[in-house]
Design a protein that fits this description.
About 40% of the residues lie in helices and about 40% in strands. Strands 2-3-1-4 form a four-stranded antiparallel beta sheet. The chain has a single domain (about 1-90), classed as Alpha-Beta Plaits (2-Layer Sandwich), CATH 3.30.70.1120. It is built from two helices and four strands. β2 and β3 form a beta hairpin. It is an alpha+beta fold and about 90 residues long.
């Protein structure tokens, strides 16, 4: 069993309130969960309205599948959100 986790830091310059940020985060999470079989959640910076930090986890029987899935999720977020990806950290166990 291989577990791959990624932490994605996004910057949403147009967001001016936590309510607006919550709508953006919920939209990203719902779209990702609909399309991919991964766990995703906002894991940090909940009180900073322009910064979104998402944690993603994927489990499979080989690293090739988890790596491909996380790559696809990152590309999907980048293509379906106006937020700019600032940093990505990945870990495989």
């Amino acid at each position: 069993m291989i577990v791959e986790a990624a932490v994605i830091k996004l910057y949403a310059s147009w967001v001016h309130s936590l309510k607006e940020k919550r709508m953006v985060v919920k939209s990203i999470i719902a779209k990702v969960q609909n399309k991919f079989n991964v766990s995703i959640s906002e894991i940090d910076a909940q009180d900073i309205h322009k910064t979104i930090i998402l944690g993603i986890a994927c489990v499979a029987d080989c690293a090739r599948i988890t790596n491909s899935t996380i790559d696809n999720v990152i590309n999907f977020i980048e293509g379906n959100s106006d937020a700019q990806i600032m940093d990505i950290q990945r870990e495989i166990r």
